[in-house]
Write a structure and sequence with these properties.
The chain is α+β, with helices and mostly antiparallel strands. It has 2 domains: 240 residues, no CATH class; 61 residues. It is 49% helix and 14% strand. A 4-stranded antiparallel sheet has the order 4-5-3-6, with helices on one face. Helix 9 runs antiparallel to helix 10. The longest helix is centred in the C-terminal third of the chain and has 17 residues. The protein is globular, with a radius of gyration of 22 Å. The model has no long low-confidence stretch (mean pLDDT 93). Its EC number is 2.7.7.49.
């Protein structure tokens, strides 16, 4: 119990009080739904304030063990969706895949299996059980139901845990792709592959499935309905960014139209406070992806309008 003692000391509480707290921790979540972009809902489980603090502390203390692959582009310092797209922009052929119910498919069993393959003999079984209760959510509301712990969308520790769980997968897929001159990145649950070699990407789904089975026993699955092959003959989109036929990053027509509409509403005082904050984020995003679009907005709506939005 050496590591749990060190962890409890960092929180300035006794091991006994920590154990009592963790007994109910998997139920200490506020659950709500948000609409997905396409159809259905995404369930967000947000931990209580104290539990969030405890989860952040775990990540801080044990971060040296939570290795992340260099081509995992989400939740990492100095990495973002722009850099993710940059890696693929000069390649003609593109494959996009994503996982089905990614965060909620990650269980303590998957996490500790990857942990033992990377960091053996650090935690004993009692510590693993306690830390599982710290890091994973129980979606079963009724106490009579059997406890089922899964990773939640909404916990501050979940991004680090998910990236760590995928480390060996990322490593295997990267090596396979390097041997075939294919670029690979993963942004959370989005897998992107690109190359200038025609038809070679059709081999990738089989390789992905093989490695998921090898590492996770198919507990993590690809959402086959979202597997998309594309090329310069069609629109190429990567995590919300469009790649033009001259290999430039673009916001895409639909997003530009949406941003114009929001700026128009702001100019005529028709935008609510929360939407203004969202618009500010979009404009900052525009500056990093396609600054020429900012210039066109300034010409149409005036520099003063854009300045006022950023001051809000």
């Amino acid at each position: 119990m050496r590591e749990i003692i060190k962890y409890a000391d960092s929180l300035e509480i006794s091991v006994e009080n920590l154990q009592i707290f963790l007994l109910n921790a998997p139920k200490m979540y506020k659950v709500y739904k948000i609409l997905k972009r396409t159809h259905g809902y995404r369930v967000i489980a947000q931990p209580a304030k104290q539990l969030k603090e405890y989860q952040r502390k775990f990540i801080k203390i044990f971060s040296q063990y939570l290795v992340v692959h260099e081509y995992a582009m989400a939740y990492q310092k100095n990495k973002n969706i722009q850099q993710n797209a940059e890696i693929h922009k000069n390649n003609s052929y593109l494959l996009k895949m994503d996982f089905e119910n990614f965060f909620n498919s990650i269980t303590p069993a998957l996490f500790w299996n990857e942990w033992e393959n990377t960091n053996p003999d650090i935690f004993d079984e009692d510590e693993k059980n306690l830390f599982s209760r710290l890091l994973f959510w129980n979606p079963n509301i009724k106490r009579t139901k059997q406890e089922k712990l899964i990773l939640s969308i909404g916990a501050p520790s979940s991004p680090s845990i998910s990236n760590f769980v995928m480390y060996r997968f990322d490593k295997l897929i990267t090596q396979y792709c390097l041997d075939k001159n294919i670029n690979y990145t993963r942004y959370a649950d989005d897998l992107t592959f690109s190359t200038n070699t025609k038809n070679i990407l059709y081999q990738i789904p089989v390789e992905v499935s093989k490695n998921l089975s090898l590492l996770f026993g198919n507990k993590l699955r690809v959402n086959n309905s979202k597997t998309v092959f594309s090329s310069k003959a069609h629109n190429r989109h990567i995590t919300g960014i469009t790649i033009t036929n001259n290999n430039k990053l673009s916001l895409g027509r639909e997003r530009k139209r949406y941003i114009r509409a929001l700026v128009h509403q702001y100019k005529y005082a028709q935008l609510e406070k929360a939407d203004i904050q969202y618009l500010k984020g979009l404009l900052n995003f525009c500056k990093s992806i396609e600054v020429s679009f900012i210039h066109s907005l300034a010409q149409k709506y005036g520099n003063e309008t854009l300045k006022n939005i950023m001051k809000e």
